[in-house]
Design goal:
The protein is of the alpha/beta class. It has 2 domains: about 210 residues, Rossmann fold; about 170 residues, Glycogen Phosphorylase B (Rossmann fold), CATH 3.40.50.2000. The strands form 2 sheets. It has an 8-stranded mixed beta sheet, with helices on both faces. Strands 11-10-9-12-13-14 form a 6-stranded parallel beta sheet, with helices on both faces. β1, α1 and β2 form a beta-alpha-beta unit. α1 packs across α15 and α3 crosses α5. The longest helix has 19 residues. The radius of gyration is 21 Å and the shape is globular.
Length: about 400
């Protein structure tokens, strides 16, 4: 099949973004399919293309993937209006591509929700089969977070969500809550599959020699890492609250490493400086290969989200799967399916949300019981190997798309 694949945030392993779409595209190519990837420009990503844009785009082949990169820069620092305009511009340029190129199947992955527009157009106007991958439930998440309050905007998003799901021949959900959310919109269970983010077991390997220890960390310090976007959804003030509690307890041997960027990062850095939280270290986004080295040099991975119930079962964060691949124990601060896995497989600790003392208690316990961390890390890696091997999940993804033509 010739597959037209839309992912606004596409990145290769040379970038700092998630590589799910790259790996899925490579799996399709390895099975003899052709993939055309349409994406935008994202600061932390690396599409593999270089050179000048011509007529608003540049094209080329990257590891067998034909990439069309649209000159539409996106940054988490942009305000809501600017991001919305970028999403819409990408969606309409994608729609034009979907209505003109030759292909057999169209695949689109959110977020943003506007990613569904080219699929809707291809399905209605060209009768092309469309598969929609849902990474977050919109408008449920922004509504619960209070990020979007305008009733007209919420209604428009609600309609777009419904039309996207019903235009698709099949859907992919990344978590149990997302699958249930798609079902609630009237999509039969047999048309939905759950394929979560996966574990790169070859890259994020534990106990390798080439680990990386950041500056400002002593050899015997206990280090917890958060890697990812520093935005409203991430609720990282909860980590600073715990850092402040650790400072009051004079646990200067426990360091918290923030790796990434985002609209709220300057405020977090400013607060840490104002409160003399010297146990907090901030780094920019780094390429995923370097991140793997860094994770081999720390002790615990932090799973942090704002205390929003829609997050509990409705997200599938890349960082969780990177952590367990690296054999890192997890400290999680919100309930849900990932907290359930952590407890079931005994690969970390889960604490209540919005409780800095419990968070600090958990970090102290981990720092003082490193023998238990060794077992937690082994269990984390076992979970990665048994349930979330990216190669197996990519194979499932290929089978699902191949079944669209006969399903």
């Amino acid at each position: 099949m010739d597959i037209l694949y839309f992912h606004q945030y596409f990145s290769t392993p040379d970038g700092a973004g998630g590589v799910r779409s790259y790996e899925n595209a490579r799996a399709l190519i390895n099975k003899g399919h052709k993939v055309i990837m349409v994406c935008g420009v994202v600061k932390r990503a690396n599409t593999g293309l270089s050179g000048e844009f011509r007529n608003g785009q540049r094209t080329g082949f990257v590891d067998g993937i034909e990439v069309i990169e649209l000159e539409l820069p996106y940054s988490n620092y942009d305000n809501f209006l600017k991001r919305g305009v970028t999403f819409i511009r990408f969606a309409f340029r994608s729609l034009k591509i979907a209505l003109t190129l030759k292909y057999d199947l169209l695949f689109a992955t959110s977020t943003p929700l506007t990613a569904g527009l080219p699929g809707i157009g291809a399905s209605l106007l060209r009768r092309k089969p469309f598969v929609f991958e849902v990474r977050d439930l919109w408008p449920e998440l922004p509504r619960e977070m209070g990020v979007i309050t305008n009733p007209l905007v919420l209604k428009a998003m609600d309609i777009l969500e419904w039309v996207s799901y019903h235009s698709a021949k099949k859907c992919v959900g990344l978590s149990p809550g997302i699958v249930e959310g798609i079902k609630r919109r009237g999509i039969p269970a047999e048309k939905i599959v759950m394929i979560p983010n996966g574990c790169d077991l070859d890259l994020f390997t534990p106990n390798a020699d080439d680990n990386l220890r950041p500056e400002g960390v002593a050899e015997n310090d206990f280090v917890a890492i958060f890697s990812g976007t520093h935005g409203i959804a991430n609720g990282l003030d909860a980590v600073l609250d715990a850092a402040a509690e650790l400072t009051r307890r004079q646990r200067n041997d426990i360091k918290i490493l923030f790796v990434g960027d985002g609209r709220l990062k300057p405020a977090l850095v400013k607060r840490a400086a104002a409160e003399n939280l010297n146990n907090c270290i901030f780094l920019d986004f780094i390429p995923i290969k370097q991140l793997a080295r860094l994770q081999r040099g720390v002790d615990v991975g932090l799973m942090i989200l704002a205390n929003v119930p829609a997050f509990y079962y409705g997200t599938s964060p890349n960082k969780f799967f990177d952590y367990i691949s690296a054999g890192l124990p997890i400290l999680n601060n919100y309930p849900g399916w990932l907290a359930d896995l952590i407890q079931q497989y005994k690969c970390g600790l889960a604490v209540p949300p919005s409780d800095p003392k419990a968070f600090a208690d958990a970090l102290e316990y981990m720092a003082d019981h490193r023998d238990e961390l060794v077992e937690m890390g082994k269990n984390a890696r076992k979970l990665a190997e048994q349930e979330f091997d990216r190669k197996n999940l990519a194979g499932k993804f290929v089978e699902w798309l191949e079944g669209v033509g006969v399903g």
